[in-house]
Write a structure and sequence with these properties.
12 strands
């Protein structure tokens, strides 16, 4: 099962972090952008090639240190069809390098549309007499606030394909409380979603005990993170909000169980833009990214021990 694979990759490198590959052109060293513009012009294709090249260089630099990558689809869709191709190529390159790939797509639809999204990102597309995986991500993020109709198509494909799904439960953004903290009966809305996540995921546990339906829980709300860890013992957590959004290593420790299992912490700009904080960083962007990833690992290690 997919989260068994992710947990094993985390244990192998003793590092429960995922690098977000969310590059905008301004996050990329200027010489890479200039080189791609020289070859392809100031076009969407030129921009997409710069993003893809930067992704590959970062994955080369982080190999053996970071177990997973998380491309956010919006940054690729921003560049039209060349960007979507760069996303597919990024996922393929990540798999070649041994990374676990979380496609951060946050899809949230129902019925046949949700089924199509699930087949496209996690499953296969029927083309004549063949079945072809369009993106072949190991896992996706989804928005389940339309109810189980928006969740089950992804969960069913994930179970068939041995993959995973991260469901938005308590998100890291400042306005999440406008809806997620509202009282619904005797519970807050985010706990209603947590209980739905547990119920729908029941029976999909892998060898490590984690269900195929995981949860997105933000580091910026440590009290709720701690509460949800107790409430969702068999749920794997994806934790955004560390670093640039204000979450700390002390905050994210609440995401893990007593063995240091069950969660992965995201950093995007902290790694992508590390070169901007280093002298001569544009020429040494790979070293800057690796140093930032090592610093994040060591920061979390002060509070979390992975058995």
């Amino acid at each position: 099962m997919s989260f068994d694979v992710l947990q094993e990759k985390i244990r192998k490198v003793k590092n429960p972090t995922v690098a977000g590959l969310d590059a905008r052109l301004e996050y990329i060293p200027p010489q890479l952008v200039a080189g791609c513009f020289e070859k392809y012009g100031e076009t969407l294709e030129g921009a997409a090639q710069a993003v893809y090249r930067y992704n590959c260089d970062l994955m080369d630099a982080l190999q053996g240190l970071v177990p997973a990558v998380k491309p956010q689809a919006a940054y690729y869709e921003l560049l039209g069809w060349p960007g979507v191709k760069a996303l597919a190529d990024t996922i393929a390159y990540a798999h070649d390098k041994g990374y676990y790939v979380i496609a951060d797509v946050k899809r949230g639809d129902i019925g046949s549309t949700a089924q199509a999204y699930a087949e496209g990102w996690l499953g296969k597309s029927k083309v004549g007499g063949r079945s072809i995986a369009p993106f072949d991500a190991d896992c996706v993020t989804i928005n389940g606030y339309m109810g189980s109709d928006a969740i089950l198509p992804f969960l069913n494909i994930a179970k068939e394909e041995g993959k995973g799904v991260f469901l938005l439960v308590k998100t890291s953004n400042p306005s999440s409380g406008e809806l997620q903290d509202m009282i619904a009966g005797d519970r807050q809305v985010y706990t209603v979603m947590a209980d739905l996540c547990k119920r729908l995921g029941a029976g999909s546990e892998g060898q490590r005990g984690y269900q195929a339906l995981g949860a997105v829980v933000g580091a910026t709300y440590p009290a709720q993170l701690k509460e949800l860890r107790r409430r969702m013992e068999q749920t794997f957590f994806l934790v955004p909000g560390y670093g640039a959004q204000g979450g700390t290593a002390e905050d994210v420790r609440h995401a893990f169980d007593r063995y240091g299992w069950g969660a992965i912490i995201n950093s995007s700009r902290g790694i992508l833009c590390a070169w901007k904080k280093m002298e001569n960083g544009a020429e040494n962007y790979q070293a800057a990214a690796r140093q930032a990833a090592e610093a994040m690992r060591d920061d979390i290690k002060r509070f979390v021990t992975i058995v």
